[in-house]
Amino acid sequence: LRSNYTESRRALTKLAQVVDSTDLVMMRARLAQLLSPELKKDSRKYFSYSAANAVKEVVRKLRINSGKYQITTSSVDLPVTVINEFDVDVTINVTMVPQNTRVRVGSFYDVVIPAQSKRQLEMSVDVVAPGQTTVLATISDTDGDEVVPAALLTLNSTVIDPRVTWFTSASAILLLLAAVAQSVRRVRRRGK
Known about the structure:
By secondary structure, the chain is of the alpha+beta class. It is 39% helix and 33% strand. It is built from four helices and nine strands; from the N terminus they run H-H-H-E-E-E-E-E-E-E-E-E-H. A five-stranded mixed sheet has the order 2-9-8-4-6, with no helix packed on it. Strands 1-3-7-5 form a four-stranded antiparallel sheet, with no helix packed on it. Helix 1 runs antiparallel to helix 2 (22-31) and helix 1 (2-16) runs parallel beside helix 3. The mean pLDDT is 88.
């Protein structure tokens, strides 16, 4: 129960760094009631789990939608949706961290999300190598501290390197020319 209380308190403290809302202050004050010695063991357990669920719902009011993306070009801008369900505007940073080196992605700084709204950001992606990668999209405050749990964006790139395309096309043209030359030789032999 103490660990639930500590996690809930930390989650609200992190969120309060970017959300200036009296609801967060009131919720954090209500958490202190769980420490009352007058609560019986069963009541404390019930209220502790109820408080943990309420904190999860409040933290979920500021989030990035997870998603799956299929990439077919070497450079593209992908839409990433950030949702703010609080009654106040929020200024955040959105850090994008790929889990491998197949792609390079851009992050966003000092993004203002209006109250009770969604905002789409254009994440620039440069594909280095084809394949699948996961990007952690993290909402952080101006100091770079994570505010809410990160969202997962799955990118699957099927980009063929232009050099491979050029080599394949050149090989196909050479094969075609060789086939034409062979056909011309056969026609000449039959004529003789």
